[in-house]
Amino acid sequence: MKTEFNHAANASPRSGSSKKITPLVGAAIVVAMIAVAIWFAMHT
User: Fold this and answer.
1) How far, CA to CA in Å, does 9 sit from each of 2, 3, 4, 25?
2) Residues lower than pLDDT 50 in the chain
3) How far is CA 41 from the centre of its chain?
4) Contact in structure between 15 and 9 (CB atoms under 8 Å)
């Protein structure tokens, strides 16, 4: 019963969305930094 309950808790929309959003935020920050670096390189 406990393992089933833990699986249900882990499959909750909140934990699932936060687990998916966190890496996306990190990737977005990296992409933004690369874009800013390229922009500075082109405009200097």
Assistant:
1) 10, 10, 9, 23
2) 2, 6
3) 27
4) yes
